[in-house]
Design goal:
alpha/beta; four-stranded parallel β-sheet; 9 helices; 28% helix; 18% strand; binds threonylcarbamoyladenylate; binds magnesium ion
Length: 322
């Protein structure tokens, strides 16, 4: 059975022992909760794919305590060095060439010659990696195709029957997953998944290729179209109205809608706040008795690109496309 422990130095030590024992630990990061295992051993990595019901061809992100540690396993391109300097520790994942002697489990990389790596800024994630002494491989702590989790309770509900220690670090601040960047080339980079670090932020540091915003085409192996989905409800995006039995998720000044449940991602139209609240509010409405979940238009700009991407995947494309 899964169980939650409050974070303290003892529970972090217990979690590190579990990881070194080949077992799994869910832990908070600044973006979403991660479902962690030792990155250097195949067996926990296979365990992660199994409990998540994740296809093993969809590789995982390895989490490190510092950029210096990262460069031991992957080759830093010139663009990667610049991005690491600018955004690590923080909500950015780099895809880079694995070193010949890289210790990252082949299974974690799904047999590719690249690996996804990240240095989280969350204090508990950082302490857990240091205490474990090796990188932690962790996808978002949700069953495959479910909503990503941003609180310990959300993780518990998804993994209740699995053998899992969940470190409770409170709600995640960023609320959506890290920006993923292919930085294998010295001179230019490609954004594979949008996040809170935006294209504009990245372009200040290196050249960004024309990327496929909100594309249906899988650009990272994990970018299946239907993703981040509520389990019980249809999601309708760009909704300016809704039915009396629907849930309505607003953004900005309150719209005049008649609905069963009303929530607002950010009454002050702050996209950072909207990202923080997105999965939590979708999750709450999914557990309610409302009919469908209707979501107001979100500006398609900056962090709004990532938010629209999540909503679009949750809706399976239902709603007005802008
Ligand atoms: O914020 C995050 O990134 C969270 C926290 C826990 O760190 N993790 C996360 O992991 O979102 P996950 O497994 O849900 O998403 C990882 C994505 C997948 O879409 C996967 O296909 C992609 O990273 N990926 C991993 N290795 C890759 C590689 N070598 N090349 C391209 N994409 C890769
Ligand atoms: Mg995920």
């Amino acid at each position: 059975m899964a169980f939650i422990l409050d974070c303290c130095s003892e529970s972090i030590k217990a979690a590190a022992c579990r990881l070194l024992d080949g077992r799994l630990v869910a832990f908070p990061t600044e973006t979403v909760y991660g479902l962690g295992g030792s990155a250097y051993t195949d067996q926990p990595v296979l365990g992660i794919y199994a409990v998540k019901n994740r296809p093993s061809r969809n590789p995982l992100i390895s989490h490190y305590a510092s950029a210096t540690d990262v460069w031991e396993d992957v080759v830093p391109s010139r663009s990667a060095l610049r991005l690491a300097e600018a955004f690590w520790p923080g909500p950015m994942t780099l895809v880079l060439k694995r070193r010949e002697y890289s210790r990252i489990s082949n299974k974690a990389c799904a047999g590719l010659d690249t690996a996804a790596v990240r240095v989280p800024i969350h204090e508990i994630a950082h302490k857990l990696i240091l205490e474990t002494g090796i990188p932690i491989v962790a996808p978002s702590a949700n069953k495959s195709t479910h909503l990503s989790t941003t609180t310990a309770e959300m993780v518990l509900n998804d993994f209740i029957y699995d053998d899992l220690l969940i470190l409770d670090g409170g709600p995640c601040k960023v609320g959506i997953e890290s920006t993923i960047i292919d930085a294998t080339d010295d001179n230019y980079v490609t954004i594979l998944r949008y996040g809170i670090i935006t294209e504009e932020d990245i372009a200040k540091v290196c050249n960004v290729t024309e990327s496929t915003k909100l594309s249906d085409k899988p650009i990272a192996p994990g970018m299946m179209f239907k993703h981040y989905s509520p389990q019980n409800h249809q999601v309708i995006m760009n909704a300016l109205e809704c039915g009396a039995n629907d849930g309505y998720i607003d953004f900005g000044p309150m719209k005049d809608v008649k609905c069963r449940i009303y929530r607002n991602l950010s009454p002050i139209s702050d996209l950072n706040e909207a990202a923080t609240n997105l999965f939590k509010i979708m999750y709450e409405l999914d557990a309610s008795d409302c009919k469908s979940i209707c979501i107001a238009p979100i500006p398609y700009d900056g962090i709004g690109i990532a938010i629209n991407d999540k909503i679009r995947r949750a809706s399976g494309g239902v709603g007005l496309l802008v």
